[in-house]
Amino acid sequence: MAETTLQEARATGSARLEWALVAIGIAALIAAPFFFYPVFLMKMLCFALFACAFNLLLGYTGLLSFGHATFFGGAAYFCAHAVKVWGWPPEAGILLGTAGAAVLGLVMGFFAIRRQGIYFAMITLALAQMFYFFCVQAPFTRGEDGIQGVPRGHLFGLLDLSQPHNIYYTVLGIFLIGVFAIWRIVNSPFGMILKSIRENESRAISLGYSVANYKLAAFVMSATLAGLAGATKALVFQFATLTDVTWQMSGEVILMTLLGGIGTMVGPIVGAGLVVTLQNTLATSGFPVTIATGLIFMVCVLVFRRGIVGEIYARLLTSVGTGKKE
Amino acid sequence: MKLTHLVSTALLAATAMTAGVLSANAADISDGKIKIGILNDQSGVYADFGGKWSVEAAKMAVEDFGGKVQGAPIEIVDADHQNKADIASNIARKWYDTEQVDAIMELTTSSVALAVQGISEEKKKIDIVTGAATTDLTGKACSPYGFHWAYDTHSQAVGTGGALVKQGGDSWYFITVDYAFGHSLEEQTTKFIEDKGGKVLGDVLYPLGATDYSSFLLQAQSSGAKVIGLANAGLDTSNSIKQAAEFGIVQGGQRLAALLFTLAEVHGLGLKAAQGVVLTEAYYWDRDDKSREFGERFLKRTGRMPNMIQAGTYSAVMQYLKAVDKAGTDATEPVAKLLHEMPVNDVFTQNGKVQADGSMVHDMYLFQVKKPEESKRDWDYYTYLATIPGDEAYLSASESGCSLK
């Protein structure tokens, strides 16, 4: 009895702490463009949302997709094309990109969830490669050149997005909405079922859940949010290129999630921030970027397998004493 | 009333002065130094195509210029864009906005070049592309401050396509990478082949990044065409040439024409595999005394001879510095104007001229890769076949589709 109250007290205490940290984080993001370069921050936010969306699938449902670049890059292409060629306003472009990614996710998920583990990953990879070659050849993507010079336009016809601060806060808003959506999904009864599927799929089936439908739903949600990130990125950089649909991009998002910590809300954000920062700072250092990220990945896998945030969580829990040996 | 009048006049004068800041400061160099950014792929598939060697070439240009222009020191900064347009765009914006970079050059790969040219135009800064091929840079996407210096898909198509027909290679078969770049390269080359009286017997399309070319090569071999054209780039070209050597295509009497292939890739493949390949470059070290002198110095410094991208970067930096020196300022408008007016005479090319669309028109050369036994020393790789005059090699400003006149 005493133990439960203690735990409850700890739970409310840590919940308060979490809320305080979230508030500090948001405040920091609001203040950030006055200290850091806005385009760089926006890129981090886009990749952070992408990694969070990916983590929804890997961390909370236990499905390792190797084809998430399709949703990220595909949405970027749809959004860029709609805004540039059809002259759509930015919000409509983002919505189209997101919806397009959802459709792609439905198709890919429909085939992929029929298999598990490595076979699941291989099917997503194969379908993603098909989409990549489609993008290489389709005239509207303009091959290697990419869709360039996409106008940022005015949000809802009012806010001029060519101003750095306007677009930054728009991107921040989209990021927060996206992360909030993921948080809601994870902490809902639906999210509980996803976690139960991750932990023990046969048991979830035996309890009467139609696991296939839940997996498909999670896949589509993850794809949709990845698409939201990709479409936003197209507006930030004003172009959509092949880079975002290559299998390397699918690998990069896995790297970000693993580095930060699978199955934590903050982990993918930290991981994305780290990888994007490395790519940018190492670019001017003369040190080969791929080698550096590879080394960091190896260190992470060997020394702290839970990822940066995952490891910090685990340490905190053991030091508080709630993390009894399981 | 009088007071308001006075105030508004004062305001007007103030506005005029702010507007005139550019010309008022024209006599000096902004931030007291000239900073040139070299942005390219230094760790990926194009690391030899331009890479670190382009940075060295740019540094050599600065040293040859004397390290100072109008008393202001010159600095070269460089970055590896990892073939990602978003990284390139991020770095370019940061360079222009916070690090006082005056011009960005090299810009390997077309997605990067187009993105950075867009940013440069928006920020009213000069960019000189030496590493990307697309003619859009001086066509639809042209900028009053953007220049295309070393080569483009048109010059490669005219060079290898048109000039080779004159050399007797009048029937062609294409092995083409199946996407926009390959299609347009094949289409443009076909036009010049047919203009010169040659004909195309057929083509085969293959997916980007293929590793097995045997069936395509066998089709090309059995077509009986005198020339097999490789409408592809990078690793694909290297792989197809390597496998063509295994099939003995060149020994069988057919010629292999690579549309985008430079000295760096020939060096990478080795003469044994690359022998007999016909290609077009704007620069070869063993062309005349000036180019030899530069090539030797580059070799001493880096351990390799420059290709047209690296020598072109040297030329671009040199010409930019000359223009700044002549203008007495690094303000974009006057420097860009001079870059359009001044002829280019340096180790890279003779009598190059810059068109209104930003394309630097200069002679291109058709070369054939030597057999291993013909090569007398390291880097002695090419036999000269023909010169393609600049006016033929490049689209004129009126044909380019650029709206600038």
TrEMBL record, chain B:
Q: Which Gene3D superfamilies match?
A: 3.40.50.2300
Per the UniProt entry, the signal peptide is 1-26
Q: Which family does it belong to?
A: Belongs to the leucine-binding protein family.
| One GO-annotated biological process of the protein | amino acid transport
Origin: domain of life: Bacteria
Give the species.
Answer: Manganibacter manganicus
> The Leucine-binding protein domain covers which part of the protein?
33-370
Q: Which UniProt keywords apply?
A: Amino-acid transport, Signal, Transport
- UniProt protein name: ABC transporter permease
